[in-house]
Every structure is written in structure tokens, then in C-alpha cells.
Amino acid sequence: MEIEPVTLSTPRPVRRPTLVQRWDELTFLHWPVEPERVAPLLPAGTRPDTLDGVTYVGLVPFLMRGVGFGPGPGLPYLGTFCETNVRLYSVDGQGRRGVVFRSLDAARLLPVLVGRLTVRLPYRWSTMRLRREKDVITYSCGLRRRPAARGRTSRAVVRIGATIAEPTRLERFLTARWGLHVSWHGRTVHLPNDHAPWPLHRAELLELDDGLITTAGLPPMPGPPVSVLYSPGVAVRFGTPRRV
């Protein structure tokens, strides 16, 4: 099986979008993990995508804006909310790279219900807040329901640094992802997406108190993340899901 190369633009341009949205004020936090530890958590027909024999766990808080169906336009209120996802990296039998979401915490109930019922993504309704003061961003998240919310909280404080002119191999591997893999009605599908190349910045993690990774079924992450990146955001278009 030949795996598609990591490219800064999608190898599968979306001609007829089924969903549009913006991802703004993102922080990417990543830890290395052995592929065999996360392989059982991936959908059938996929395996961990690796770089130099290592795969990664990502914690990605951001602001979702303007979610809308078809070519848009997006919804200004219902389609705008804070979100935090815990994700893994996957590749399928056709060589398509993607991400697998272990959890997606979102602050707006209706998109949570739609995401769970239509795309079968593991959305959870949470209290979330994003606060920016000059070059420092604070993300906070906690599930609404008790006692199920016990331990399922996250708080990250990040200082935005210099613009990245040329991403490293690892930075491209972690961010240049042109689809997701998900179990959908008993089978695994690949849902492609398309957006401009990421505008990336170096970032410094000032504080992290996270309980989302372990409650997503993953082992505790040893030590600080090996990669901390920030992006002001991109406009995204999703295409038609394809069976794996």
C-alpha cells in the first residue's frame, strides 16, 4: 500500500462542499505515543499513521465559526462556539491519511446533537471559554453533566510566538490533515476536507491542567507536549464521505 505524501494543500480538492465552517484561534498540543497503544482505538480498516515509527496524540482547543450545510453561508450564532478535540492520526487501506477524534467537547448543544446523529462523531456538550489578552490565550472546558463531568476538564494557557515560515516535517505531519476517519452506520468512512495551508506560529505552553485525554480512553501523557503550535485559523470545506 502506498501512503499519500504529506502536502501543505489537499490532494483531494472539494468541488461540492457538504459542510462549511471556520476554525479560528487554534492551539495544537501533541505528545508522542507508541502506535500499538492506540491502534485498538481506531476504526476498522485504519491503522496509526506514524512518522519515524511514532504516532501522536493531539489536544486541540479552538473557536468554531459559521458552521453551515452545503456551500453555506454558515450560521452566525448556532454555528459559532468553542470546541476542544482529542485526536489520533490514521491511515486507511487506500493510503489516505486522516485524523480520528476520540472526543469533541463543544459549547453549543444543537451542533453536538447534529454531529452525534449525522456523522457519528463523539461530541459532548460542555461549558467552554476562550479568552485572549494580547498574545496570551486561555482555553477552559468542562462537561455540563455531573457526576459524569468529574475529571473531564481542561485548561490551557498559551503564549503566541513568531510566525513559522517553513514548517518542520513533524509540524507538517501533525497539521496537514485532509480528512477524518469515522465509524458511520457500521462501516468506516473517510470524510475529506479542504482549506488553505495553515498559517502557523510558534507557541509557548504556560499552563496545562487537562483531564480530557485520559477520559478519551488514552494513557496519561508523560511530560509536556513535544509540539506546541498556534494558528489564527482557516476556512474549511468538507466533501462527500467515501467508504474505507
Automatic annotation (TrEMBL):
SUPFAM superfamilies: Acetoacetate decarboxylase-like. InterPro entries: ADC_dom_sf, DUF2071. This is DUF2071 domain-containing protein. PANTHER family: DUF2071 DOMAIN-CONTAINING PROTEIN, DUF2071 FAMILY PROTEIN. It comes from Streptomyces endocoffeicus.
